[in-house]
Design goal:
Helix content is 20%, strand content 31%. The protein contains four helices and ten strands; from the N terminus they run E-H-E-H-E-H-E-E-E-E-E-E-E-H. The strands form two sheets. Strands 1, 2, 3, 5, 6, 7, 8 and 9 form an eight-stranded antiparallel sheet that branches. A two-stranded antiparallel sheet has the order 4-10. A hairpin with a 5-residue loop joins strand 5 and strand 6. It is globular and about 40 Å long.
Length: 189
């Protein structure tokens, strides 16, 4: 089961709604990968013993982990926290989230500054690269249980847009520019 992603409409309705364009414009995993967004689908019911998760953590150096239940009943200042998560920002490090239960939306900006909405559900592990503009919100179910992974000690600092001079943003932009130059010239005969 693959993750669902689509270009968002420009509506200012409830952020927890899907905000699909009409007609819908879906986004492929390949397109997300071009933006540096990585994805795996794992078994959320056995995350403590999941060999694939262990391999991902070892390969990518994710040595810190915690769990977060995000819903009105379990989070103090829930509305304020959700508002903060939904403010467009970047991080100096990758953002790694594994959805164990429930669902929510990560929105990321593409190369043309359009919003792409990524719907994460139980089993979806997503990695957002450092420096990508993004935001998060729950969907109308108002519940998600996330595993948060980090390399080293967790850093929770969000840098709200604009951040064009932030080193992580500059590096991200440079990596996107370099990926467009991949290839080689072929001599004509």
């Amino acid at each position: 089961m693959a993750i669902e992603a689509w270009f968002m409409d420009e509506s200012s309705e409830d952020q927890r709604l899907p905000h699909r364009r009409n007609p819908e414009e879906f986004v492929s995993l390949d397109h997300l990968a071009e933006l540096g967004v990585l994805y795996w689908h794992l078994n959320p019911d056995d995350y403590e013993n999941d060999e694939e998760l262990k391999k991902i953590r070892e390969t990518r150096g994710y040595n810190y982990m915690d769990l977060l239940d995000l819903c009105p009943e379990k989070v103090a200042n829930y509305d304020e926290k959700l508002k903060n998560f939904y403010t467009e920002h970047i991080h100096a490090d990758e953002e790694i989230r594994y959805c164990l239960k429930g669902s929510g939306y990560f929105d990321v900006r593409d190369k043309d500054d359009r919003w792409i909405r990524i719907w994460i559900k139980a089993g979806d592990l997503i990695v957002l690269p450092a420096g990508i503009y993004h935001r998060f919100t729950l969907d109308t179910n108002n519940y998600v249980k996330l595993m948060r992974l980090f390399v080293g000690e967790p850093v929770w600092t969000a840098f709200n847009r604009p951040q064009e001079n932030h080193p992580a943003r500059k590096e991200y932009i440079m990596s996107m520019t370099e990926s467009e130059k991949v290839g080689f010239a072929v001599e004509a005969r």
